[in-house]
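Priority: medium. Attachment 1 of 2:
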């Protein structure tokens, strides 16, 4: 099996950790999920499951279907930590399912806010690649499911803000330099005027963790997918340039160098470490790698650790329950074994 997207460092990976394309779709002849009975939701799950697993495509055999009600709370949270589902999806009590590709680059939430939320993730800055794969899968599903579409409004969605293309394109950015210079508020205000939004690490309503921000398009009605993607590309390139220029200036400052090397030392020696502290130090080490202060640690390794040290994901991979101190000890061991 291929490596997962979060185990790799892609194009412009110094700043762009990952790229995501998400498509919102609804089936014809069914009410939106909020108006669906549980029996209708079950029908929708079965229809989507059949369309994904039995469409004779080259990747259908690589999908698995997860009944979210059959997994424990920790496994559900781990899905959010790995950016495979939304927090709203795991908290819903109605009939729902997750279709997941074996390398976790494609996830399909069934009965989230819309009947189908198709998401494609890839490492680094690669909007074209992510969109092409999302478009191929979207076309295959539409052949079997017949999505609700209006010539006037485009794809019909439960929330009016998703009408039109139903697409959200986003990039996950690591912006420690711009964050440290207090530039993020002004940048966010300027981006909103351009039809883009800058959110926290886990999307709407969340805070940035370890200086990681999600940049995405706000407008999906009256604009083509290609135009939305080109807009996001152009703004992302500008942010990359700003961040790298600011990093270059900061890297010569003694206090910044001290923070980077202290973080490296803590990650290499700590016996107990919380998730928040570990993420702060990984962010500093990532900054150190991209500015040449640290030369013997790869970005691939740091990207993987940012996901694997998350509380629920750590327990998921360990395969046994852990109390908070045990979790902090396992996390510290994982970091010591990899930051070397």
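Attachment 2 of 2:
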């Amino acid at each position: 099996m291929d490596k997962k997207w979060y185990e790799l460092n892609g194009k412009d990976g110094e700043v762009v950790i990952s790229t995501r394309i998400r498509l919102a779709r609804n089936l014809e002849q069914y009410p939106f999920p909020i108006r669906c009975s549980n029996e209708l939701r079950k029908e929708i799950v079965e229809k989507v499951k059949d369309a994904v697993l039995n469409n004779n495509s080259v990747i259908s055999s690589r999908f698995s279907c997860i009944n979210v009600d059959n997994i424990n709370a920790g496994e559900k949270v781990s899905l959010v930590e790995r950016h495979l589902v939304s927090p709203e999806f795991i908290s819903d009590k109605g009939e729902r399912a997750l279709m997941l590709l074996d390398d976790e680059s494609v996830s399909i939430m069934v009965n989230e806010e819309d009947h189908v939320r198709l998401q494609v993730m890839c490492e680094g800055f690669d909007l074209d690649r992510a969109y092409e794969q999302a478009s191929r899968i979207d076309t295959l599903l539409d052949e079997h499911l017949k999505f609700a579409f209006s010539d006037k409004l485009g794809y019909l969605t439960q929330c009016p803000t998703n009408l039109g293309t139903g697409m959200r394109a986003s990039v996950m950015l690591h912006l420690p330099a711009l964050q440290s210079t207090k530039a993020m508020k002004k940048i966010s205000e300027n981006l909103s005027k351009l039809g883009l939004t800058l959110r926290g690490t886990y999307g709407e309503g969340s805070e940035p963790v370890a200086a990681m921000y999600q940049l995405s398009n706000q407008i999906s009605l009256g604009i083509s997918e290609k135009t939305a993607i080109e807009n996001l590309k152009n703004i992302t390139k500008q942010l990359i340039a700003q961040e790298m220029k600011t990093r270059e200036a900061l890297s010569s400052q003694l206090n910044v160098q001290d923070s980077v090397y202290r973080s490296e030392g803590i990650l290499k020696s700590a016996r107990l470490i919380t998730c928040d502290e570990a993420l702060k130090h990984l962010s500093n080490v990532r900054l150190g790698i991209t500015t040449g202060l640290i030369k013997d640690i790869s970005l691939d390794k740091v990207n993987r650790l940012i996901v694997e040290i998350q509380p629920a994901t750590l327990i998921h991979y360990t395969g046994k329950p852990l109390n908070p101190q045990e979790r902090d000890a396992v996390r510290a061991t994982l970091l010591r074994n990899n930051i070397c």
